[in-house]
Amino acid sequence: MDALRLSRLNTAVLVTGVGLAAGHLLMPFSPGAGAGRRVALAATMLVLGGLRGWRDAALRDVRAPRAVALTALAFALGALALAVAGYVVVHGVPR
Prior knowledge:
By secondary structure, the chain is mainly alpha-helical. Helices cover 80% and strands 0% of the residues. It is built from three helices and no strands. The chain starts with a helix and ends with a helix.
């Protein structure tokens, strides 16, 4: 397995683990939970996804700064979308 595939596997495991742990610890949609918990979960997933996207671009040896930024943004939004989708699948649509 090459470094890029290993990094992508690592990204999938990290996004899943951090999403589950942060979602469980913060319980952003539990009764009485404030908006701060929701923002904290979203920020955690965006930062994690952005860092993993930057790492992916570095492993592909992308030289263009715009391409690196777009890769990081795509990974960040993907991590957030996966966290939201996972929450909806497990707990249903929040009220």
